[in-house]
Amino acid sequence: MRNTFRKTLTWLLALVMLVLLGVSDMASVFVGFSNSSVIFVITVFCLTAAVMNTKLTLRLINKLLRWAGSSAEKLVLAYMAAAALLSSVMSNVPVTVLFLGLAQPVLKAVGAKPGSSRLGKCLMIGIPFAAVNGGMATPAGSSFNVLAMGVFESIAGKPLTFLQWMAVGLPTAIVATLVCWICLVKIFKPEAINEECSASIREEAENAGKISAYEKKVLFMLVAMPVLWILGTWFPALDVTVVSIIGFVVMFMPGINILTWKQFEESVPWNIILMFGAILSLGTIVAKTGGAAYLSKLFLASGVMNLNIILVFFIVGVFAYLLQTFFPVAPAIISLFVPAVAAVCVPMGISAAVPTLIITIVAAGTYLLPINPISALSFDYGYYSSADMAKAGLVPSVALCAFVAVWTPLIIRILGV
Questions:
Q1: b vs e for 375-409, b when ≥16 Cβ sit within 10 Å of the residue's Cβ?
Q2: Which of 77, 162, 285, 350 could bridge across to 345 with cysteines, CB 3.0–4.6 Å?
Q3: CA gap 259, 238 in Å, rounded
Q4: How far apart (Å, rounded) are the C-alpha atoms in residues 284 and 279?
Q5: 10-residue block means of pLDDT along the chain (417 residues)?
Q6: What is the number of other CB atoms lying within 10 angstroms of the CB of residue 177?
Q7: How far apart are CA 31 and CA 54, in angstroms?
Q8: Please, what's the largest Cα pairwise distance for the chain?
Q9: φ and ψ at 116, to 5 degrees?
């Protein structure tokens, strides 16, 4: 928390320095905090907090365990599918924490030992992989996505809708999760399990009783909000910001009481909100002051644009991916490189949505080293080494960059974005 707070202070200080150095004026330097994306990301954090107060996740994993039976491979897929599903509408970090906790009873039941258990490696690597993949599926899946949508709007002068994002993100998330799962179970070959392994989770789910009225209300919000966000593609009145504000207010209404104001204050990571607004402001300033144009000229001078356009997008994706892998600063990568690459693409008749989505998605999908916050959560359990993760993540890394390089420009052209 302390390190994240320091990063937040750095972003805010950078904005103040821009004013002191005469690069920008006070009115422009904080424009990012008024971006509608800030409201959206606060609402997503509220939904996450509401789900964490229920047993809905436990009930979901119990049903998937019944489907998996005695198959270790299906068990890994069950956990990954559930983590990816929830991560599509929740923040990746709490989803990862939640499922790592739910995996412990199963690992304990099979006598899994950190460092040697093949099932342990599969679950401890697979859960953060799946959470990251699910975060790609919708704008609600990650604060990086909302940041990218804000950057796109500042470039294009129009919003990127919830459905347009899903058209790229959802197929990518499904393909990436399946590729990750196949690589994990083929490389590590998890040891066999028996029905008793999941008994503790099933017992806990049964003890939870029938779904409560509170859980029904949370489940309704969890389904209704994304549906309304998607419908906003066709009904302008259902603008993402409007729906977010209404949903936010409903959660506190008398008779609904999904969250109290105190729970809201404690559950929203305000350091991230401050960093979010600061980065949006910085990205806008970079574009207005010619910084994006300068970076795009450097990109053009490299001769990359003389290659096939799909290969160009693959190279851009690999560059952003490796940069995030070794230097996990996705917000900076998005705010600096999206405007720069978009400045090259737009004159060629390519929508700014293409580089926005490619760079944001690959910057999220880091499968090679456990130095990003999500992978670090599972790495601390000691079930796998950095080499294990690199071995499991190499093929998914290449597959992710290749898939988005081909799929994104194709579907964006079809949708006419």
A1: bebbbebebbeeebbebbbebbbebbbebbbebbb
A2: 350
A3: 23
A4: 9
A5: 54 77 75 71 79 79 76 89 87 79 78 86 94 91 85 86 92 96 94 69 71 88 83 77 87 88 81 70 68 63 76 90 79 81 87 94 85 78 90 95 96 89
A6: 25
A7: 37
A8: 67
A9: -125, -25
The owner of tokens 């347009």 is 164
Residues near 21 by beta carbon (within 8 Å), at least 6 away in sequence: none
Selection from 345, 367, 358 nearest residue 404 by Cα: 358
Q: How big is the CA angle at 352 (ends 367 and 324), to the nearest 5 degrees? A: 20
Residue 72 has which token pair?
């270790």
d(CA 24, CA 22): 6
Residue type present at position 89: V
As a whole number of angstroms, the distance between CA 292 and CA 286 comes to: 6
Residue 210, φ and ψ in degrees, nearest 5: -70, 155
Phi/psi at 379 (5° precision)? -60, -35
Q: Which two tokens stand for residue 124?
A: 């401890």
Structure-token pair, residue 362 = 């690959």
The residue assigned the tokens 């053009």 is 300
State both tokens at 298.
Answer: 């450097």
Computed from CA positions of residues 132, 137, 142, 146, in that sequence, does the dihedral angle turn out positive or negative? positive
